[in-house]
Write a structure and sequence with these properties.
Mean pLDDT: 94
CATH architecture of the largest domain: 3-Layer(aba) Sandwich
Strand content: 5-15%
Largest sheet: 6 strands, parallel
CATH superfamily of the largest domain: NAD(P)-binding Rossmann-like Domain
Number of strands: 14
Helix content: 40-55%
Number of domains: 3
Distance between the termini: 58 Å
Structural class: alpha/beta
Number of helices: 20
Strand order of the largest sheet: 3-2-1-4-5-6
Shape: elongated
CATH topology of the largest domain: Rossmann fold
CATH class of the largest domain: Alpha Beta
């Protein structure tokens, strides 16, 4: 079986590479000529554990190739995935410009039956727009070529995307014809053969499933952050509360960790988009509005804790900041809480020296020289008044506290991810400020 994946961003590159690893011949397409040339040379544009090795291996086995020609890739494909970006528009809705541009180009170049699957996160009803765009181009050509559109949302977590794709907890597919369903079942046969679950449904339900899943996870995070802030006020320990409620199988243990807010390419964008979709249909998404409000407030929490500790006067003080990416195992800084913490403290007159194991180049691209950058976590501490932990990288979980103590001017740690034990910090003589723990 041969397929094409249009878009070599995070979703497209991971999906295309993993499908190639399953034995399918995959052509990845992108209009960015420089990116395609680099991919052909084995230079991967994103950081994702295990991805680089899979790309190189499948290119060598001729199961994975890269091109800028959509026309060329369509001619040799049984199915085509649209995996281009859907950035938020000014009003919070998903921008479908790139998706529909691809759809029109498909209609301009297809010569035989093909199944077009939307892999990008798109609003409910997008598949109908994609179908209309393709059909419009076929009508302009005066040809009658059958095709189907399907929805196949991705559920990849940055930092474990390869594992998520190769060992999926579910594969969701929305189709509207038996012919399309059979193509998709053939496409995912290497996975269903291993016992992984393929859930067939109608297209609107598949499109909704993606938004509902991410919004539910974002809701859990904001809920726990709100509970954590209340725990501080009433003298409770959110870590114990988390364990207590997580023991209930109806609730479960995952996504109950409080922190300084969620970020990344998915949750903020998808929550906004679902709120917008609700508004378009005259339905207010009250819970999600609250989720977004809590998250926006939570991103300012660590800077507020710092300012409260120093009674509002941090002018001239220097802070070491550990962690820039929105989560571990990625260099993604989109909507990262670290950027809010940095902006708030810089505005108050502080100086920041930052370090992240992976995201340093991305940070320099985004922030330039408004902060200083260290070569490792301990260098960041030299001469700092206090340490602020924003991302829970494994490198930071068990630091050499003798190095920390000797480098800091004062033994003060602000922990935005609750990765240290308050009792141990007290024994070590640190002023330790975390989230939801007195």
């Amino acid at each position: 079986m041969k397929i094409s994946v249009v878009g070599t961003g995070y979703v497209g590159l991971v999906s295309g590479t993993c499908l190639a690893e399953s034995g399918i011949t995959v052509t990845c397409v992108d209009i960015d000529e420089l990116k395609i040339e680099k991919l052909k040379e084995g230079i991967i544009p994103i950081y994702e554990p295990g991805l680089s090795e899979l790309v190189l291996d499948n290119v060598e086995k001729n199961r994975l190739r890269f091109t800028t020609s959509l026309k060329e890739s369509i001619e040799r494909s049984d199915a085509l995935f649209i995996a281009v970006g859907t950035p938020p528009d000014e009003d919070g809705s998903a921008d479908l410009t790139y998706v529909l541009n691809v759809a029109r180009e498909i209609g301009q170049n297809m010569e035989d039956y093909i199944v077009v699957l939307t892999k990008s996160t798109v609003p409910i009803g997008t598949s109908h727009k994609v179908k209309a765009a393709i059909q419009g181009e076929l009508d302009k050509r005066g040809v009658n070529i059958p095709f189907d559109v399907a929805s196949n949302p991705e559920f990849l977590k940055e930092g474990s995307a390869v594992k998520d794709f190769m060992e999926p907890d579910r594969i969701v597919v929305g189709t509207e014809s038996e012919r399309a369903r059979k193509v998709v079942e053939r496409l995912y046969h290497p996975f269903t053969q291993q016992g992984f679950q393929l859930i067939n449904m109608d297209i609107p339900s598949a499109e909704m499933t993606k938004y509902a899943a991410n919004s539910m996870l974002a809701t859990r995070i904001s809920f726990m952050n709100d509970i954590a802030n209340l725990c501080e006020l009433v003298g409770a320990d959110v870590n114990v509360v988390r364990k207590g409620i997580g023991a209930d199988p109806r609730i479960g243990k995952k996504f109950l960790f409080p922190g300084c807010g969620y970020g990344g390419s998915c949750f903020p964008k998808d929550v906004k988009a679902l709120i917008k979709i609700g508004a378009e249909y005259g339905h207010e998404m009250g819970v999600l509005k609250a989720v977004e409000e809590v998250n926006d407030r939570q991103k300012h929490l660590m800077a507020k804790k710092v300012l409260d500790y120093y009674k509002g006067n941090v002018k001239g003080k220097r802070f070491a900041l550990w962690g820039l990416s929105f989560k571990p195992q990625t260099d993604d800084m989109r909507e990262a809480p670290s950027m809010v913490v940095i902006d708030d403290l810089l505005a108050a007159g502080a100086e920041i020296v930052a370090y992240d194991p992976i995201a340093m180049e991305e940070a320099k691209r985004r922030m330039g020289d408004k902060v200083k950058y260290a070569d490792d976590e301990y260098e960041a501490l030299q001469g700092a008044d206090a340490l602020i932990v924003v991302t829970e990288w494994a490198d930071f979980r068990v630091p050499k506290f003798t190095f920390v103590e000797n480098a800091l001017k004062e033994k003060v740690i602000f922990d935005g991810r609750n990765i240290y034990d308050p009792k141990q910090m007290k024994e070590f003589g640190y002023e330790y400020i975390s989230i939801g723990r007195s």
